[in-house]
Every structure is written in structure tokens, then in C-alpha cells.
Here is the input.
Amino acid sequence: MNKWKRLDHRDRIFLCIVYGIVILLSLMILYPLWFVVIASISSPDLVASGQVLFLPKQITMEGYKYIFRDTRIWTGYYNTVRYTLAGTLIALFITVPAGYALSRTDMAGRGIVMKLLIVTKYFSGGLIPTYLVVKGLHLVNTPYVLMILGSFNVFNLILCRTFFVNTMPMELQEAAEIDGCSITQYFFRVVIPLSKAILAIMVLYYAVGHWNSFFNGLIYVTDNKLYPLQLILRDILITGQSVDPTTLDPESLELMRQIARTIKYGVIIVSSLPVLVLYPFVQKYFVKGVMIGSVKG
Amino acid sequence: MVDENLPARIPIVWSWKRSGMENMMKKKKRAGFNSMRMLKKTWVCYLFILPMVLYVVLFSYLPMYGIQLAFKDYRVSDGIWGSAWVGLKHFKTFFESWQFKNMLWNTLSLSLYSLVAGFPMPIIFALILNYVTHTRLKKTAQMITYAPHFISTVVYCGMILIFLASDGIVNQFLMLLGMEPAGFLSKPENFRHIYVWSGVLQNIGWGSIMYISVLTSVGPELHEAATVDGATRFQRLLYIDLPSIVPTMVIMLIMRAGEIMDLGFEKAFLLQNSVNLDYSEIISTYVYKIGIQGGQFSYSAAIGLFNNVINLLLLVAVNRIARKVSDVSLW
Here is the structure.
């Protein structure tokens, strides 16, 4: 308090504005998320008439009951989980060894490889030529396309490479070489165990990318059974098909219309749950990734 | 005696703390000699990059071969190579079509609007957050403002549509404050503002991380000296903090400039409906519609290429300007 009294009045105003903006912005972002949570468990009528603003009222689980009965959502969930798991593994397999190899100065031609990679960041064939390549590989409408596409990203590779350049001391490599350690052994026995941070960052970046990926599913998959969660979500949230009409009799269809929006809120929660639950614990890795990347963009 | 021996005895621990730059310099000196022997030792590196090379060749370089479609009339039976050349026919059709002007304008205006509104916000936020000394509040604010970055575009757009609906939460708050509810979604011209400002809110936290990390590395002695000289906090923000992040700002600006025509397909596509089509049809959504949905491969490949080339030109131009003006550039 004493500190506050000693402050110049211009500083006081400044600090008031600073704290005001930070708190207001945080609330502006937090409130919508909170509202989705309370609206998903409140009575739909009260939500629609604007009586649910800060706390849930007349708690009901009707919305969630419909969600749990909707097979589309669970098919989408299952698909997205397997795309994410397989895709993240593929991504690690592609990115981490390549990042390490390109971080070694004794690898001839690595400058050219890096240049060719940067080119792809700024110039690409475009949607249609890429689509034709995927089609030519007979990957359209298979689960594999959604596991493979999105499993490599030049930015993540550069991140990996920067990490290895900055943290792997030359002396360690020399000591290992003198002891007769090959590059492969060195990579698996020394580099990988020392690189848990970058592995965590890669897993998180790629996993979130796969989990939230919508575009590739839209382009390359037309079979309902292969739809990832995000495509199902689009049907429910954007196009407004909250209920699969074939699974319901006319009576419950009317009832459904009333709680359609409750279902929307519930679906947002259910689909974002894995990310939301993990987020507070892994946030530091995401931030770390940005910091490493900022050293050499 | 002891002091001199210490670093030599524990070289690994000692060098851990050094920056990577020194390692790089050392490595460079050795890299020159006897390349045959080098290759014998490092051949396995090429095995390490093989999966990546495969991916990049298949999904980045092979599609570039398909760009020739833009100058051909693609027929499945003839393949990419065998289809007949038609020169610039598709480009002409596109430039002369009635949607061209509107689409180009939508793409450019949305993108520039996003840049103008979205670029300064994370910077301002970082500068402000730097003066929040209450650690708990600072950490919480960071955690909350980064969160929207991880919400998928589909869910985010779904939330926008639900909240802004005529009986949505935003209107309910307006009514609570005694104001008239507004038809946010029924007026097509609102699309632009909804698109841009929802994007600003989604990225303000995540975009500020880099600036925050630069700001924390500003030497405290500068701030101390300024305080002794009687500078207020706002003056320190303007004359110490702001100049320290200018190089980062320039780099970020150049990178953003290379994406001006690369406007997010997903968000525009998901927020698009028959009401706002005049404002929401951008080049990438059009390419999707006529290419993937309509099957006109050559025509949409031509439009895609046009988009790509403009992008590249913008990147080169902005980079050149930045190099002349501020000595900071990508290459």
C-alpha cells in the first residue's frame, strides 16, 4: 500500500488502466467458455429467455443424454482419436530424426535441403494439384490420408532443429564418437533421452493439429464412417443438424427442436474436453515451443 | 592453480551453459576437410531425413508438377501430361467473370482489415502485461488469453453463430443494458467485422507470447536508469519497451504480408451462408467450390495459381521494403 502512495499520479492512472484492460480482456475470453458450460446443463427454456447468465439454473442432463445416444458423435470421436494417435506417431517419425540430421554440421548438403523446405512454405501447388496427387496415390476416402496429411510441418522441423543446435553440445558428440558410438546409437541413446522437452512440444503441436483438423477431412473423405469429429461438429453446430433425423420418431423430433441448442453447447464441451482438461498442465510446453521458434523463425 | 584446472576437468558441464553459436562455429571449421570420409560417417543422416523427403516430395513438390493444369484442359483419360495446352484461357475466363472483382476485393479487404486490426493487438497486450507485477494475475491472464488458440475453428465458428444469433447471449446482454437487440447475422455487411474481431480475440494472447519473451529480456538497468531520471511507467513503455520489440515486429509483419492472399479458408467457409455470400466469398472458398465440388480442375487450378503468385510477390515486395527501411529482413 505504501508503494502505491509513493507513486506519481500519472503512474497510478497508468496502472489502473493496465490492470483494467488485462482483467477485462481475460473476462471477455473466459466468460463465453463459462457460458457454454452452464448453458449445456441448464434448462433450455431458461437459456433461451436469457435467465441463465452467470450460474446454471434447473440443472438437467437432457442435452448430454442425446449426445451420448448419437452414434455419429461417437464414430467421429473414435475416428479422430485414431487419426490423432497414428498421425502424431507418424509426425514424430518424420520430424524428429530429420530435425536432428539437419542440425548436424557435418551433413553435406543440408543447406540445400533447408532451402528446398523453406520454398514449400511460401509456394505450393495449390488445392487441386495436391488433390490429384492424393487421388493418384489411391488415398482418397481412406483413413490413411487423414493420418498422413498434417503429419509434417516445416515450422515444427525448424523448431526441432533449432532445439538440437542449441542444446546438444559438440563435446558430448565427440566423446561419444571417441568411444565408438555410431550416429544412430548416439541419436537413440543420447539425443532422444536428453530431448524430452522438444518431444513433448512436438507431440502436443501435432496432436492438437490433428484433433482440430477440419480441412483435410472436408476435402479427402466423403464416407460418413470415416468422418473425423470436426466434420460431425460442423453438421451439428454450423449446418444445424443437431439430431440424426433417421433415428427418431416424429414426436421426439419436436422435443428435439427445443433442446437443439442445449445439444450444441454440450457438443462443444464433449469435443473440446480432452484439449481443455490437458491444457492447463501442458500450456508451458506450448509456450516453450513458441520461444524456441522465435530464435530463428 | 585450482582455478585454471576447473574448467578443463569438467568440460561437458561447462560447455552446456554456452550458447549454441559457439558450437556452430566450432563445427563449421571441421566440416571442410575430406568429404569422402565424412560421407562414410554421416550417410545415416540421409536415412534420417528420408521420411521427410518422401513427404515433401509427394505432397509439396509433386503437386507443383500439377500446376501445368492451369494452362491445360484437364481430362482424366489423358492425364496431367497428356491434356491439351490452352495457354491463358482459364486466367482470361477468371479475370472476365463477374465474380472476379468482388472476390478479389473480399479477399484483399478481409485480409488487410485482419492485419490492421489484428497485428497491433498482441503487441499492445504484451506491452501492457509487462507492467502487471501481480504474478498470479499475470499467469492467469496468460493462461486464459492463450486458450482460444486451441479451440478448433469449427467449434469457434459454432460459438460465434450461437452467441450472435437473434436470441443469443450477446443480444441478451444488450437487452439487459436496455439496448435494442441487433441482427448481427442478418446483415451481410457485418460478416467482415465478425470475421476480423473474432479473429483478434482468438489470437491476441497467443500472438503476444513472442513479444512478451523479448520484453522480459530487456535489461533492468535501462528501466532503473529511467526511473531515477523520473520517467513514468508510460514513458518507459514508450521509450524503452516499444523500441526493443521493433525488430520482432518487422519480422512478424513480413511473414504476415506473405499470407495476405492466404486467408484462412476454414473460417470464411464455416461462417459463410447464402445471406452473406456477397461479402464472404473469397478466392480459396471459390477454388474449393468449383474445383472439389464442381470438378472443374483446370479452372480452379488456374485461380489457385493466381492466388499463389500474388502472395509470393507481396512477400518479396514487403521483404525488400523492410530491408531498405529497417535493416531487418527474412533474407
Notes: The first helix of chain B runs from residue 2 to 9. Residues 1-21 of chain B have pLDDT under 50 and may be disordered. The beta strands of chain B are 72-73, 84-85.
